[in-house]
Specification:
It is built from four helices and no strands. With 74 residues, it is an all-alpha fold. The protein has one domain (2-73). The termini are far apart.
């Protein structure tokens, strides 16, 4: 997050605080903002998927219980 903040601040410094959004998108430094944001998004999605998998694995369903019994029986 700090890295993203620094990149956004660098863009703001280059275009000026009162510039329209379009100026930010046209700034040379904007590519860095996108790259950093993409890495951050990838980490967030990975974390969410891991959390969802933990929840999914902890939920007992009739189908899952049936499979477990079949595996235990041999």
């Amino acid at each position: 997050m700090r890295e993203l903040g620094r990149a956004c601040s660098a863009v703001q410094a280059s275009v000026g605080r009162s510039s329209p959004d379009e100026a930010y998108l046209d700034a040379d430094e904007w590519g860095s903002v996108i790259a950093i944001a993409a890495r951050l998004a990838q980490v967030m999605v990975t974390n969410d998927l891991q959390a969802a998998a933990l929840v999914q694995n902890s939920v007992s369903t009739p189908e899952r219980e049936s499979c477990r019994r079949a595996l235990m029986a041999g």
